[in-house]
């Protein structure tokens, strides 16, 4: 009898261990314009493999419509969703302000900001109780694409039609301030509007040049203004109660540790842009844009769209990399 009891206890222990070791099953909705065979999904398949080592069995589902992925996250049909940083602002203002206009001038600045955000000390800022950010990847700088290269200044943009993302009120505000006409669009149709001449101007990362055939809208006399407006991102937004905090942090660390792989992919795509499209602008215009973008950030912060904490972090990084900037002594962000 004693042996039988011991054997039963051992079996029960093994069953308990097996149950404990069973991975957590969760559904991750992934926005990729190309779908299941797109570059975002390919990268997420590597993340899925790594996640198994954390005890997470992730089911990846591709969405070519970002809006549907975001709605499914909100409705609880997805446990997490990989969406653009601009849209993630609705879930976490701090992380969503990463894509602020002019806040991060270069990818070198972006690397430093992402390092700070991936550190465990930033975890509380990335979890608001309902949603948490489980990873951030750069999507490249946003540049202005115009169908007429004569539109190479703010003054010349007046009266032109500019595609703006309808769910991001900040874009329409900025466009209206320069006297242009905002045209509500979304990621699934803004490129078509540009290519068909419905709008004169769009802002897009260079990776969209081939994927969305933007050379059609640039032809024959268009151009790309050689001045980045913002550094864009992709962010994994999760329902906080669906993932243990240790898995959330491991995921954030994974995203940052694989940053160089993402940058290599972006670089390959950016090299596909024909150099003939680039439009150089004078340094005095760049200085004007920088002042305008700072004013816009402050206004959007005061109106509640941008996170003050993220804007301060971005300003600190800009000043760390260039202490001679005027904003480093006259602090307004």
Characterization of the model:
The protein is of the alpha/beta class and 333 residues long. The protein folds into two domains: 25-139 and 233-270, D-Maltodextrin-Binding Protein, domain 2 (3-Layer(aba) Sandwich), CATH 3.40.190.10; 142-230 and 272-328, D-Maltodextrin-Binding Protein, domain 2, CATH 3.40.190. 45% of the residues lie in helices and 21% in strands. The protein contains 15 helices and nine strands. It has helices at 2-21, 39-52, 66-74, 85-88, 93-96, 107-118, 154-157, 169-177, 190-195, 208-211, 215-218, 245-257, 259-270, 283-302, 308-321, and strands spanning 24-31, 56-63, 80-84, 131-146, 161-165, 181-185, 201-205, 223-239, 278-279. Strands 1, 2, 3, 4, 7, 8 and 9 form a seven-stranded mixed sheet that branches. Strand 1 (24-31), helix 2 and strand 2 (56-63) form a beta-alpha-beta unit. Helix 6 runs antiparallel to helix 12 (245-257). It is globular, with a radius of gyration of 22 Å. The model is unreliable at 1-19 (pLDDT under 50).
């Amino acid at each position: 009898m004693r042996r039988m009891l011991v054997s039963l206890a051992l079996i029960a222990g093994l069953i308990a261990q097996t149950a404990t070791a069973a991975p957590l099953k969760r559904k991750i909705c992934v926005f990729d314009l190309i779908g299941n065979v797109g570059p975002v999904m390919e990268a997420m398949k590597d993340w899925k493999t790594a996640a198994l080592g954390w005890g997470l069995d992730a089911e990846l589902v591709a969405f070519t419509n970002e809006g549907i992925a975001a709605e499914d996250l909100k409705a609880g049909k997805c446990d997490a969703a990989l969406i653009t940083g601009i849209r993630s602002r609705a879930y976490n203002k701090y992380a969503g302000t990463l894509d602020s206009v002019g806040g991060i001038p270069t990818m070198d600045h972006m690397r430093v900001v992402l390092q700070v955000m991936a550190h465990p000390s930033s975890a509380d800022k990335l979890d608001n109780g309902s949603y948490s950010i489980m990873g951030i990847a750069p999507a490249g700088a946003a540049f202005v694409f115009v169908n007429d290269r004569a539109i190479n200044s703010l003054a010349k943009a007046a009266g032109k039609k500019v595609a703006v993302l309808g769910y991001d009120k900040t874009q329409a505000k900025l466009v209206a301030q320069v006297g242009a006409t905002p045209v509500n669009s979304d990621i699934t149709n803004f490129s078509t509007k540009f290519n068909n001449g419905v709008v004169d101007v769009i802002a897009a990362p260079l990776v969209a040049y081939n994927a969305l055939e933007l050379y059609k809208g640039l032809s024959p006399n268009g151009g790309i203004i050689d001045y980045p407006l913002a550094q864009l991102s992709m962010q994994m937004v999760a329902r906080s109660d669906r993932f243990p905090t240790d898995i959330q942090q491991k995921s954030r660390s994974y995203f940052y540790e694989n940053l160089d792989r993402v940058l290599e992919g972006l670089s390959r795509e950016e090299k596909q842009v024909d150099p003939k499209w680039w439009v150089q602008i004078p340094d005095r215009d760049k200085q004007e844009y920088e002042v305008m973008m700072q004013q816009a950030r402050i206004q959007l912060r005061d109106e509640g769209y941008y996170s003050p904490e993220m804007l301060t972090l971005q300003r600190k990084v800009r000043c760390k990399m260039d202490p001679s900037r005027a904003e480093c002594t006259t602090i307004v962000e």
